[in-house]
Design a protein that fits this description.
The protein is an alpha+beta fold. It contains 13 helices and twelve strands. It has one domain: Orthogonal Bundle (Cytochrome-c3 Hydrogenase, chain B).
């Protein structure tokens, strides 16, 4: 219940992935509670794919998002492979991991462009945006050459990667990634001399909830218990005493072992690299570290590929089965569940995205901050709204 003396702040969020509002309750200038409200319409991919051929579904799943398209393609492919009892050949697995990491770099760089106005003085923002765009172009070129397109790459298929890159392409892409790494490290050194007071606000806010991650680079369903994932409607998670405005949200909430958790770069580095950052700014520090170590990992993977060897399993077994794909998307742990009918068509499909886990963290992390800085909290978590919209409220009088 909203107390009578509360000041209600309604922030139309900009510079995030999608359409959302941040509704904050303030007492004497301090945030006491917050509600992350997604306003994007529900697109219903989990229903669209019912009865469809798995090959279509992988391509459809990539259209859930224009940012983490590759992550959805990989998670969907992994789920179908699990259901069909097949696996990519060595080259296919190596190449799939590489293109997934290239997509992670794309996403982290796009996020960096969106938060630059929070990081550097206004007159310097354009200069840094141009530099980050050049880095984004490098990694996008690599994704296009390895996976067939800079977005929704068609070479991601059930069984691996559809086309093997030539030795010449591999050599050029390794050189491009080395150039990217050198230019990014120069950018990072320059950024550290520019930070605004908002960075101090984030550095002074200690916040380190429980974490969930399954792998530092790829994803591993055996490193979590997917049966412990529980999905709730927003009002079931927050309770009935919430502002009416918050009831309009189109997202659901995901809990793990009935607890709210954080997933994403900081979670991955904390679990698998002994990262100890416990402030809100450390969420971004973790992204910077990932940009560096992921680039090095991509180079390592491309050097392992054996040109001319198969990159995909050509025979698909259409049958009844159930499968799970777990992948570490840019924003965290992504889960695709699939059940196939006797003809190998989709009988049931379910997706849990990282933002569904992270919505409670955005709300909790805002508590205690001053009003003027509340909008930076969702941005530091980099929510992906199109991925997380799953609910539509229907008035049975006939209005939607």
């Amino acid at each position: 219940m909203v107390e009578a003396n509360a000041k209600i702040l309604k922030k139309m969020l900009d510079r995030i992935g999608g359409e959302a509002e941040f509704l904050a309750l303030s007492y004497n200038g301090e945030i006491r509670d917050a509600y992350f409200i997604t306003t994007a319409p529900v697109r219903g991919f989990e229903k669209i794919v019912l009865g469809k051929d798995p090959i279509f579904v992988v391509n459809a799943a990539m259209r859930i998002c224009g940012i983490c398209h590759t992550a959805h393609g990989i998670a969907s492919s992994e789920a179908f492979e699990d259901a069909m009892g097949i696996a990519p050949p060595y080259n296919g697995r190596i190449l799939r991991e590489a293109v997934g990491l290239v997509n992670r770099l794309q996403s982290h760089l796009l996020h960096l462009m969106l938060i630059l106005p929070d990081i550097v003085p206004g007159e310097r923002v354009l200069n840094y945006v141009i530099r980050v765009l050049k880095l984004h172009n490098i990694v996008s070129e690599i994704l296009g050459e390895l996976a067939g397109s800079v977005t929704h790459p068609p070479y991601i298929v059930i069984g691996g990667i559809a086309k093997s890159p030539s030795e010449d392409v591999l050599k050029k892409d390794i050189e491009k990634m080395e150039r990217f790494l050198n230019q990014f490290m120069e950018l990072l050194r320059d950024l550290e001399n520019e930070y605004t007071e908002r960075i101090d606000v984030l550095r002074n806010r200690r916040y380190s909830p429980p974490y969930l991650a399954t792998h530092i680079f790829y994803g591993d369903k055996y490193n979590m218990d997917v049966n412990k994932v529980r999905i709730l409607k927003y009002e079931d998670y927050r309770g009935n005493n919430i502002p009416d405005e918050a009831r309009k949200t189109t997202s659901m909430i995901a809990l793990y072992d009935d607890k709210t958790i954080e997933t994403g770069p900081r979670a991955r580095l904390t679990i698998y690299r002994n990262f100890t950052g416990d402030t809100l700014w450390d969420i971004q520090v973790a992204r910077f570290i990932e940009l560096k170590i992921d680039a090095k990992r991509i180079i390592e993977l491309l050097e392992k590929i054996e040109p001319g060897e198969p990159t995909s399993t050509k025979i698909l077994t259409y049958r009844h089965g159930k499968g799970i794909g777990v992948y570490e998307a840019p924003r965290g742990t992504l889960i695709h569940w699939v059940e196939l009918d006797d003809n190998g068509r989709v009988k049931h499909y379910r997706i849990v995205v990282p933002t569904m886990f992270n919505i409670p963290q955005m709300e909790n992390a805002a508590k205690g901050l001053s009003e003027e800085h509340v909008d930076v909290i969702p941005r530091i978590y980099d929510p992906c709204v199109p991925c997380s919209t799953h609910v539509v409220r229907i008035d049975y009088k006939g209005d939607v």
